[in-house]
Amino acid sequence: MMRALNDNNPPPRTPRAALLARPRWDVEGRDWPNRDASQFVHAAGLRWHLQQMGCGPVLLLIHGTSAATHSWRTLAPLLAEHFTVVAPDLPGHGFTQTPAPARMTLDAMAQDLAALLRGLGHQPVLVAGHSAGAALLARMCLDGSIAPAGVVALNGALLPIGGAAGRFMLPLARLLASSTMVPRLMARFARNPGMVERMLVDTGSSIEPDGIDYYRRLVGSPGHVAAALRMMASWRLERTAQELPQLATRLLLIAGSNDKTIAASNSAQVQRMVPGARIELMPGLGHLAHEERPHDVRDIMVEFARDAGLLPRLLAAAE
Question: Is the pLDDT of residue 182 over 70?
Fold first, then answer.
């Protein structure tokens, strides 16, 4: 497995990729949060960017659609006080290479992420995913490619979008994902003053200026936008949702009451579907609750890990 801390030798670009510039490690990643924890590795035919920090039992963090490792910028170091934290950029996101379109489905991404973990030699005992990242981890648990003691869904997108919205959004996402012009236009619009701020407000969250800037860098990249659109167009959650009652792993659902992207009622519905699932509602927080209140999310996750026997109770007295 190759490891490097530079991006001087990016993979060859196809004609389509040449039109969809991706974030560059030496430009957009020049002062990336927790940059000293970053590494580049090869697995499943892709060049992945990931961050690893801390020591102790392995905790895997998976971001959501159109995000990257920056979304864990504060939470990951807090969790690294208790765990070996491993956080990759998903395929096509951030600084990880974009796969062929057929590999952007939920099943394929789960397989490729499992290959990454095998290459790293990691068997996570706890996994946490934000939004679509939670669905990816649930799929991996159901497939048996990972067997953690607990799963944390942070405003998890575990259910298909229902009603007219679902019937409209999926065909639209497919149409947009098939174009090279649309991601370029969206990236151009995202560079306009105030555009990213408005997009984040629409999630129900309020984050600090540095966090907004990292999102601006990503959505200002046509390649990153194209991968996010392809992911949304390719994912099918129906089978995973149907199989959720079979999830044997402990499930903790953390939901922001002000989430305007994935309503907290979705987490309540999942709780009713999965035996033994527990829900923690975070009042006033939106879809990016883990970025708004990382210390509170850390406390909830650490307590969940202790309940699962992953961390000794005696640590509580020393904190």
Answer: yes
Cβ–Cβ under 8 Å, residues 160 and 260? no
* pTM for this entry: 0.91
Residue 178 belongs to a domain: yes
SS3 content of the chain, % helix, strand, coil (to 5): 45, 15, 40
In a domain, residue 188? The reply is yes
How many domains are contained in the chain? 1
CA distance 62 to 133: 5
CATH number for the domain harbouring residue 234: 3.40.50.1820
Q: Residue 12 domain-assigned?
A: no
Query: β-strand 150-154 against 126-130: which pairing, if any?
Result: parallel
C-alpha to C-alpha distance for 215 and 291, rounded to whole angstroms: 12
Which residues span the domain enclosing 176?
20-311
Q: Cα 239 from chain centroid?
A: 20
Cβ atoms of 85 and 128 closer than 8 Å: no
At 303, the pLDDT band (50, 70, 90 cuts) reads very high
In a domain, 246, yes or no: yes
End-to-end CA distance of the chain: 38
pLDDT band at 162 (very low <50, low <70, confident <90, very high): low
Q: Which residue's structure tokens are 């990336």?
A: 32
